[in-house]
Specification:
The protein folds into two domains: 8-142, Rossmann fold (3-Layer(aba) Sandwich); 152-275, Rossmann fold. 42% of the residues lie in helices and 22% in strands. The chain has helices at residues 21-33, 51-78, 93-103, 118-123, 127-134, 164-184, 203-210, 224-235, 250-254, 258-262, and strands at residues 8-13, 36-43, 83-89, 108-112, 139-142, 152-156, 187-194, 217-221, 239-245, 270-275. A ten-stranded mixed β-sheet has the order 3-2-1-4-5-10-9-6-7-8, sandwiched between helices. α3 (93-103) runs parallel beside α5 (127-134). The longest helix has 28 residues, at 51-78.
C-alpha cells in the first residue's frame, strides 16, 4: 500500500491500548508487498516522578513494554512475516518517532489516527500534525478497523493546477495510488474538487490523466473536504490517497492543509504523500 520500493514499514505502537489497528494494517501491507515491519513503541516517564526514582521507573517500564511488544508481534512472526521491535523512552516522543523512522530508512509510516476537534487540529501539536509535516516518507493514518481485502483506492487530485511543484505532486500521487491498487488488486478511483464553473474539471480529462474509466473519475463543485467526503461515502470507505507540499514557517504551523482538515470528516484510512 505504498509507491515503488516498499521494503520497510515503520509501525507506531500505541502503548495505551491492546487494539493495535496500525499493526494490523501494517501486517496487511506487508503481506501484499513483502516488506519488513519495524514496530516502534515510545514512552515517557511522568514528569511528577522524583529524580531519584526516574531511572528505576524507566528501567521497569522499558522491560514491561518490551515484553508486551514481543507478545503483540508474535502472531505475525509465526506466520512468516519479518518483524523487528524497538522500545524507546523519550520526553518528546513525537520527535522521537520521526527520527526513528528516518534512522531505519522507512518507506512508509503507519499509525492509528483518532478524531480531534477542529481547534485541536489547527492549534495543538498532535502526533498526526508532526508526522504530516516532518515525515520523510508517506504516512498511512489508520482510522478504521477494516479487515479483509482492500476494494477501492481513491486518489485526490487537482489536475488544473499549473504550478510545477503541484504538477510533480500530482504525478507522485498517481504513481502511489496506482501501485497500491495493483498490489491489492483494488479498483482505482480519482476525485477532483473545483470551485465555480470557470474552474470546471471534465471527468473524461481526469480519467485520462489517471488512466482509469470515466465511471471511476469523480468531480464536484465545492470545497475539497466536502467533495472528498461525499465520494468516500459513495464508494464505501476506500483508502484515500492525498498529497501535501512541505511548508515552513508560521503558515505551516497554524494553517492546516486539506489532508489535515479532512481527517475528522471521513470514515476511511488516509495515506498522505508529502512532496518536499
Amino acid at each position: 500500500m505504498a509507491g515503488p520500493q516498499l521494503k520497510k514499514i515503520f509501525c507506531v505502537i500505541d502503548p495505551t491500548t491492546n487494539n493495535q489497528r496500525a499493526l494490523t494494517r501494517a501486517a496487511s501491507v506487508a503481506r501484499n508487498s513483502g516488506a519488513e515491519i519495524h514496530a516502534h513503541l515510545c514512552f515517557s516517564v511522568p514528569s511528577g516522578v522524583r529524580a531519584n526514582d526516574r531511572d528505576s521507573l524507566r528501567e521497569a517500564e522499558q522491560s514491561r513494554h518490551e515484553a508486551w511488544l514481543e507478545r503483540l508481534v508474535a502472531p505475525l512472526t509465526s506466520e512468516g512475516l519479518t518483524v523487528t521491535t524497538e522500545v524507546e523512552s523519550e520526553e518528546d516522543w513525537r520527535a522521537a518517532l520521526i527520527e526513528a523512522a528516518k534512522r531505519i530508512k522507512a518507506d512508509l509510516i503507519v499509525r492509528s489516527s483518532f478524531r480531534r476537534s477542529a481547534l485541536q487540529r489547527r492549534v495543538l501539536k498532535t502526533t498526526d500534525w508532526a508526522l504530516l509535516r516532518e515525515a520523510h516518507c508517506p504516512v498511512l493514518l489508520v482510522k478504521t478497523d477494516r479487515v479483509g481485502k482492500l476494494e477501492k483506492v481513491l486518489v485526490s487530485l487537482d489536475i488544473k493546477d499549473k504550478d510545477e511543484a503541484h504538477k510533480k505532486l500530482t504525478d507522485l500521487l498517481i504513481d502511489h495510488a496506482r501501485s497500491i491498487a495493483e498490489r491489492s488488486n483494488a479498483e482505482l478511483h480519482a476525485v477532483n474538487a473545483y470551485q465555480g464553473s470557470m474552474n470546471f474539471v471534465h471527468p473524461p480529462d481526469l480519467a485520462k490523466r489517471v488512466g482509469i474509466e470515466r465511471s471511476q473519475a469523480h468531480v464536484g463543485d465545492g470545497s475539497p473536504e466536502a467533495i472528498i467526503a461525499n465520494v468516500v461515502e459513495k464508494l464505501g470507505s476506500p483508502l484515500v490517497v492525498m498529497g501535501s507540499l512541505a511548508r515552513k514557517g508560521v503558515s505551516g504551523i497554524v494553517v492546516g492543509n486539506t489532508a489535515e482538515r479532512i481527517l475528522d470528516d471521513i470514515n476511511a484510512d488516509v495515506m498522505v504523500v508529502v512532496k518536499r
